[in-house]
Design goal:
heterotrimer, B: alpha/beta, 4-stranded antiparallel β-sheet, 12 strands, C: mainly alpha, MetI-like fold, ABC_transporter-like_CS (chain B), ATP binding (chain B)
């Protein structure tokens, strides 16, 4: 089949009164291909999680109003009746959340929970299901899976629970895996294990992974492409090397410069002035302009369009668009 | 530089003291025989994963938690043998900055009351007018307009609240500040602001930090020396460049190699440790790290490696540390 | 020097300026907003104030002596001379109600306030200090909780007699464990708050921490409980009086107005109706005020 696996066009998620809406996601467009890992990066209030939840239709409507178009494998997700969504979640799209404990049922064994995910999408004999559960647990690197299927979630550590979550997400070989801050609650040595697992899943099943994170280190580690969001909008999109080598949006530049590095030590960190604006509160012009060193009068009036800066590299900034044109 | 804080054999075991009936949970050995020194005006960072005891260690230094054994000597005075009144006066020397910028400020008090709390506690705030002026100066020092002092914390963003918490800590001019994960709850673009502020204040006022963190890049930036903890014990301690450059303990090396860096193309050569950190209520015999250690031998299960000097100013607790630094050994293999 | 340049950008500064013109609401503004912008609370407050005034000035307000009997005017229905009629002894029901409000309101307010003070002290000590204090207080609470307050009150009143102070003490003892339990649980929760630890770390003395950080934050449930139990207290006093061990006849309280009325129910219903209505109105008003106070104490309000 041609075309991208996931295509999001002009997605808008708005709350509040219609004449003064709070747009927490505003005109977001991107696409995802099979076998690709894309990082969706942003700070609190950037709309990154809301974008991902919209893809799963997990944003409650009302109060939210969702506009635009989301196509998964050519199917219009926003046009589907809500009752068809559970079949798509799980079979076509798997999800991994930040806090694995709250996503698992504490009174069911993990074997039953994974088994439930499998049987949601096709009948199976109990023996076949059990075999599949063990296969999945082995796949996600669970030691001694035969014994562990009878254990309850609280008997696992955070990293192991995240593996269980991954096993549930992978139960029906979904073509798209959405991971919302999957390693944020984990320690670095455990984070390394989970990142390795995700890379492994992608390679084995040719799944697409949409990784939502605030951690640029994680992005550099496993992503092929990066989408940077700020205050509900995409401000830059680029292949991972291009983004880290030559960022084109002042926000991305500031962010990369402000993160302390292992290899070189500086006297002082670069700092982006000001605070992160609450979602949707900046309604006109470029949302980053108040904190931007390249700010010009035009930024207050008009949101800059995405300008091309190389293959697959786009950024929404008046100043750097001029740089590129010059 | 003179010694400001001296910690000797500090340990803490938490026992299940709940009033309920039934079997007691096993005791948790949170901190075990920790010794180190902090020099005047120095930044000592403590790194480690959750449950390694780094937060408990910070609280032991302030006697927010009573140590089970060992002692903390501040400025030549032993906190454990001190009377209650003297110990309270000692508190002035040692202040704390917390991780949670939302929870650590009381929601019903004004910014002025929060910032002046340590001053009030030690009777240093003076007249009403003097107190407001002091608060105004402190707010300006942390980069907040003094006009904000009559507001409540809920009107501020996370980064601004952390500034308020820092103003509170420096209000009594301490010589030592324990900062427990001060930036890990903040947005990435705000972290740099707070780190810069903490560094600027430290250079200006000359106090020392115990900087507790799990973010190794942040530690690399701010610390002079680094202590690595695993299951309640210090496994390695030394100058920042030495520890980051050539770790002597296999855990330090794994930790450094696991930390993702904001720079693509570093994907190979990572050491991925297997398994999880054991529970602090069931610390393995001998070397606590042996269950995950790629170098573990039968000796490690039998004997706890002592923290010994492997280079001047550099200590590590590994049976193989003094023989050869880990990186050199791997390169040779 | 600390770099503060460009910390607050022009736009956010402008926002701050606008906010500065309208400063954060003061405590009094919050109180006014919560209390006076709700008609129900305003009415409730007025009702309680009126009842308190009536109780305070009872001898001057009451049209007759509440104890004065008259065989010429028994079991009257409301009329110009006796607005709420008379009872079987010809006593004026309105006057008895007015004088009875003294006993009922004193019971209704005194015991819950005493119990709140004692219970909160015990509960906060148990929750804050833990250990032996906690274990002793918790066991005593459990033991007292095992007795229904009414049963306890009846037992003590039967043993010691039904004097005014005996009843107050009994009700206080009966209510204390409830306050202690709520205070203990809330203290345990507040003690975990990072700002309490921050105060400890700053070197604040324990009594100051308790007074400044713990008590204000557990006050909301205590106040709600107090209003709840001032209602129960009036009710229990009425029950005790009804059973004949509360306020002793011929002295009036709302409880024994109802009791006396019950014996004479088929002759006139007015004593029961007016006594019952008085209790209902006061209890309802106190609960409404309790709700408003709770909202004022909520730091996120307004």
């Amino acid at each position: 089949m041609g075309g991208p696996l996931l295509e999001v066009r002009d997605l808008t998620v708005a709350f509040g009164p219609r004449d003064m809406p709070l747009r927490v996601v505003d005109g977001v467009s991107f696409a995802l291909d099979r076998g690709e890992t894309v990082g969706l990066v942003g700070e609190s209030g950037s709309g990154k999680s809301m974008t991902a939840l919209s893809v799963m239709r997990l944003v409650p409507e009302p109060p939210a109003r969702i506009g635009g178009e989301i196509r998964l494998d050519g199917r219009d997700i926003l046009g589907l009746p809500l009752r068809e969504m559970p079949a798509i979640r799980g079979r076509d799209v798997g999800m991994i959340f930040q806090e694995p404990m709250s996503s698992l049922n504490p009174v069911m064994t993990i074997g039953d929970q994974i088994g439930e995910a499998i049987s949601l999408h096709g009948r199976m004999t109990p023996a076949a299901r059990r075999a599949r559960v063990i296969e999945l647990l082995t796949l996600v690197g669970m030691p001694d899976p035969e014994a562990r299927i009878r254990a309850y979630p609280d008997q696992f550590s955070g990293g192991m629970r995240q593996r269980v979550m991954a096993a549930i997400a992978m139960a029906c070989n979904p073509s798209l895996l959405i991971a919302d801050e999957p390693t944020t609650a984990l320690d670095v040595t455990i984070q390394a294990q989970v990142l390795e697992l995700m890379t492994d899943i992608r390679e084995r099943f040719n799944s697409a992974i949409l990784l939502i994170t605030h951690d640029l280190g994680v992005v550099a580690e496993i992503c092929d492409r990066v989408i940077v969001m700020y205050s509900g909008r995409i401000v830059e999109e680029a292949p991972v090397e291009a983004l880290f080598d030559a960022p084109r949006h002042p926000y991305t530049r500031g962010l990369l410069k402000s993160v302390p590095s292992f290899s070189e030590t500086r006297e002082r960190l670069y700092q982006i002035a000001g605070s992160v604006p609450p979602a949707g509160t900046i309604r006109e012009g470029c949302p980053f302009r108040a904190r931007c060193p390249l700010r010009m009068p035009r930024c207050a009036v008009e949101m800059p369009p995405m300008a091309a800066h190389g293959p697959g590299h786009r950024a929404a900034c008046w100043a750097t668009a001029e740089e590129a044109a010059a | 530089m003179s010694v400001l804080i001296e910690v000797e054999g500090l340990g803490k075991t938490f026992h299940d003291t709940s009033a309920r009936l039934g079997p007691r949970r096993p005791p948790v050995r949170a901190v075990d025989g920790v010794s180190f020194q902090v020099m005047r005006g120095e930044v000592l960072a403590v790194v480690g994963e959750s449950g390694c005891g780094k937060s408990t260690l910070g609280r032991l230094l302030l006697h927010l938690i009573e140590p089970s054994e060992g002692r903390v000597v501040i400025d030549g005075q032993d906190m454990s043998t001190m009377g209650a009144a003297a110990r309270r006066q000692m508190r002035r020397q040692v202040q704390m900055v917390f991780q949670d910028p939302f929870g650590s400020l009381s929601p019903r008090r004004s910014i002025a009351d929060i910032v002046a709390e340590p001053l009030d506690a030690f009777g240093l705030s003076g007249s009403r007018r003097a107190r407001r002026e002091t608060v105004a100066d402190l707010l300006r020092m942390v980069g907040l307009p003094a006009a904000y002092m009559d507001r409540k914390p809920r009107q501020f963003s996370g980064g601004q609240r952390q500034r308020i918490g820092i103003a509170r800590a420096i209000s009594v001019d301490p010589s030592f500040i324990v900062a427990d994960e001060p930036v890990s709850a903040l947005d990435v673009s705000i972290q740099a602001q707070i780190i810069n502020l903490m560094q600027d204040l430290q250079r200006e006022k000359g106090f020392a930090y115990l900087f507790i963190a799990h973010d190794l890049a942040v530690v690399r930036h701010i610390a002079d020396r680094v202590a690595v903890m695993y299951l309640g014990r210090i496994v390695e301690i030394g100058g920042k460049d030495q520890v980051y450059g050539a770790p002597h303990h296999p855990y330090t090396e794994a930790l450094l190699s696991a930390a993702p860096e904001a720079r693509p193309g570093r994907r190979s050569g990572r050491i991925v440790l297997q398994g999880d950190v054991p529970s602090p209520s069931r610390v393995p015999s001998g070397c606590a790290f042996r269950t995950r250690c790629p170098l573990a031998t039968e000796l490690c299960a039998r004997e706890t490696p002592p923290l010994v000097e492997v280079e001047p100013g550099r200590l590590a607790a590994c049976h193989f540390a003094s023989a050869f630094p880990i990186t050199r050994r791997r390169n040779a293999a | 020097m600390t770099d503060t340049s460009g910390l607050l950008d022009p736009e956010l500064d402008a926002m701050a300026e606008r906010e500065a013109i309208a400063p954060a609401p003061t405590m009094w503004q919050t109180v006014r907003h919560e209390v006076f912008h709700r008609p129900a609370t305003r009415i409730a407050l007025a009702v309680v104030v009126i009842f308190v005034l009536v109780a305070a000035f009872a001898p001057w307000i009451a049209p007759y002596d509440p104890l004065q009997q008259s065989f010429l005017a028994i079991n009257q229905t409301p009329n110009a001379a006796h607005w709420l009629g008379t009872d079987q002894f010809g006593r004026d029901v309105l006057s008895r109600l007015i004088h009875g409000s003294r006993n009922s309101l004193i019971f209704g307010l005194l015991s819950p306030v005493f119990a709140a003070v004692i219970g909160t002290t015990l509960g906060v000590s148990a929750g804050y200090f833990g250990g032996v204090v906690d274990r002793v207080v918790s066991r005593v609470i459990d033991m007292l909780m095992a007795f229904p307050e009414l049963l306890l009150a009846i037992l003590v009143a039967a043993a010691l007699g039904g004097s005014f102070w005996n009843i107050v003490i009994v009700l206080t003892v009966a209510f204390t464990p409830g306050f202690a339990r709520v205070a203990r649980a809330s203290t345990l929760a507040v003690k975990q708050e990072p700002y309490v630890e921050a105060a400890m770390a700053a070197g604040v003395r324990t009594p100051v921490i308790i007074a400044r950080h713990v008590v204000p934050n557990i006050l909301a449930p205590i106040v709600v409980l107090m209003t709840l139990w001032s209602a129960s207290s009036i009710r229990i006093e009425a029950t005790l009086s009804f059973l004949g061990i509360g306020t002793q006849p011929p002295n009036p309280s709302w409880g024994n107005i109802i009791r006396d009325g019950l014996n004479n129910m088929f002759a006139t219903q007015w004593p029961i109706l007016s006594g019952g209505l008085a209790i209902t109105v006061v209890v309802l008003s106190i609960s409404l005020i309790g709700d408003a106070v709770r909202d004022v104490l909520d730091p996120e309000a307004g």
